[in-house]
Write a sequence for this structure.
DNA sequence: CTGAAAGCGCTTACAG
DNA sequence: CTGAAAGCGCTTACAG
């Protein structure tokens, strides 16, 4: 037995008073005070049942809306719960029901925080909590977080990883189940996936560069072998192929999706014998890395070199120069991801589905013609009309004057 | 009784096999397979106790490190747990111990996501989870989130609100306890607080403007009455007073910490008969709002009007122009906030402490002299030498060339 | 040192 | 319709 004799006698006293019926005659205000006092005693479902003169079973079922009680009983329960200030204990409910009503989100970088906010909002809409895990892109962390599914801390997890899997992740995912993959793949995993339309994005970005007159185009991708890298590179190569160009291996760089290595890659690219006139970075983190390097080295964008990117991070339109980039909505990843996860958990979604979030080119000011002339609207992307008939979706924002 | 007869018989079968001792002779690999299989049966502490030939009490205590068992017993337990793939059920543990090992964070805007990441990381360092709540700055949401403390879903909450309290928040906080206030105050609340050094920040920003030769200086603050607004305004007024200037009420604007109203306030300010030559925005959101408005209206910063802000958001250095702003570290808010909360919960921190996160001026390119000349380093902030002897901490970053 | 047993506060088959 | 009671999987006084 617990050592809660003080609380116990307080509780007894409370009930002694309560059962005199005196309380019922007190004003609402005083009753509420009582409720608050008793709140300290942790009002449980038993207390409510006692006050309403019914069984805990009835209280539980009524409060969970699993039953339609005759009005007098129902309102007695409701009033008792209200008067006592009853709040069901979520932990106890979880233990007995086996459900946590909580979802988890594993994000690789703090920068994906925008996805976190959107996920939280959507989870809340469905009555779920959102537990956040920051894996810093470390397998050990990811694996350990995933096991929260097993101890029922969370009902399912949205996994956003950013590295190649050595098999550990795959195994863990298939053991725990109830995960949805976001943004990057873990090949073989039994999990629904939500990816960006990477190939199309690569296509749009590269066609835009070509339309502006570039032919010597470099690319800075994420880690080799990652889905995002592979697919965006596909789009890149494909767009080049459309006009009879080929990707020059000397102009291809791959690195983590981080600023520092992108800075290095950028500078390295410009030191080539025949430097590129434009670069396609596969992520805005890569682009800002390049921009910082450019600023320090006195290289002007787009005058000296054009830059097109992928993501459309917050404030990308206010950067110097305003960044031309392929937009993928972080919020959409969060919102749709949560829904896919909920559907998957409920058995409404198969473990083989792959969905895509759409992308669009947002044209701003980081791309000029190879001759250093700022790009005019005259050379607009009608020139990028796609030979294969694919529509070129592009949005133009206000350009810097 | 639950309807788990299949699981039950599977479990019985498992134990029947187990007790033949056959399992012990199987290879580690096969054992692990068994563990995984049995994982489906939910290995509990009882199973471990049974396998190790001890009581659940011993297993619990040993696994929780509350006791030093003689080595043979200890290792039998450890091995059994390992072999069976035992994972303690966090929910059950919470119900019996009354602790959730989870902290909550209520954030007013998705943009505070940087704080969320830092909080998560620090909570994890202490073995805690982080449940994220997105209040969208709504009292109802905040109040409802706070009650998670009462149902023991979380042990404590970091509260970041951004509006004036009508009393509801105060009442709730004092009822639930275990909250730490971040960034903004809820007057009267019994909670430790972590605020930015707002007065000093306002001082630094304004002195910088004055040192560059500005005398007609406007301010766009957050909502009136909010701690951040009041204190930054204090610093503003104080700095003006240092050189015998006074804040012109016609040049003061207050609005939500959002972009849209800041755009309006900015334009409005410039339509004055005697427009200001410089503006101090009390948050970078306000600054970017002003920058967007400026861009659309063809107003150049800093040539037409100078801008100094507060926050130092991500990529502020890459904006056009690079934003001169008072830095407060979002990460520090998260990290220190979590530690304060943990200390408060443990009774190691009083409900009356107010701590401050330091600020520093980061000088970039959004401030010029009132004549439209870009600010040269020659007019550096030595000119802002403070009459009252306060040091002017300022950091200069690379300026745009 | 060790363990049987009560208890945490719910949910939910099962039996009136 | 209604309720007594078992059970979720732990922790922890209490008694050997």
């Amino acid at each position: 037995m617990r050592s809660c004799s003080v609380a116990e006698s307080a509780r007894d006293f409370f009930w002694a008073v309560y059962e005199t019926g005196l309380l019922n005659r007190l004003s609402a205000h005083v009753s509420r005070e009582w409720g608050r006092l008793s709140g300290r005693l942790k009002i449980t479902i038993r207390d409510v049942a006692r006050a309403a003169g019914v069984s805990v079973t009835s209280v539980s079922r009524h409060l969970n809306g699993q039953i339609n009680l005759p009005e007098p009983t129902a309102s007695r329960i409701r009033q008792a719960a209200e008067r006592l200030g009853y709040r069901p204990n979520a932990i106890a409910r979880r233990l007995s029901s086996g459900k946590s009503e909580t979802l988890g989100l594993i994000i690789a970088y703090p920068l994906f925080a925008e996805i976190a906010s959107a996920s939280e909002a959507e989870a809340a809409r469905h009555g779920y909590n959102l537990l956040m895990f920051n894996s810093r892109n470390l397998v050990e962390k990811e694996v350990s977080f995933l096991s929260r599914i097993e101890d029922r801390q969370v009902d399912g997890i949205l996994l956003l990883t950013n590295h190649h899997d050595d098999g550990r992740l795959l195994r863990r995912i298939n053991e725990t189940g109830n995960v949805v993959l976001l943004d990057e793949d873990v090949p073989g995993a039994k999990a629904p996936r939500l990816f960006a339309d990477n190939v199309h994005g690569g296509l749009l970005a590269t066609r835009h560069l070509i339309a502006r007159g570039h032919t010597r185009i470099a690319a800075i991708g994420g880690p080799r072998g990652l889905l995002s890298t592979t697919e965006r590179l596909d789009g890149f190569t494909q767009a080049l192929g459309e006009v009879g160009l080929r990707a020059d291996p000397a102009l291809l760089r791959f690195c983590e999706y981080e600023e520092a290595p992108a800075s290095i890659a950028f500078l390295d690219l410009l030191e080539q014998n025949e430097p590129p006139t434009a670069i396609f970075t596969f992520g805005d983190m890569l682009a800002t890395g390049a921009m910082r390097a450019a600023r320090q080295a006195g290289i002007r964008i787009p005058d000296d070199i054009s830059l097109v990117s992928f993501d459309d991070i917050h404030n990308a339109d206010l950067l110097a120069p305003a960044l031309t980039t392929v937009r993928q909505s972080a919020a959409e990843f969060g919102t749709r991801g949560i829904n896919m996860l909920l559907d998957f958990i409920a058995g409404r979604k198969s473990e083989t589905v792959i969905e895509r979030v759409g992308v669009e080119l947002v044209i701003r000011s980081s791309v000029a013609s190879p001759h250093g002339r700022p790009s005019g609207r005259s050379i607009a992307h009608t020139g990028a009309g796609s030979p294969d008939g694919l529509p070129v979706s592009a949005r133009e924002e206000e350009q810097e004057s």
Residues 1-3, 54-58, 61, 67, 69-70, 73, 92, 94-98 of chain B lie near DNA strand C (CB under 10 Å from a C1'). Chain B has three domains: 5-88, 98-191, 198-328+359-396.
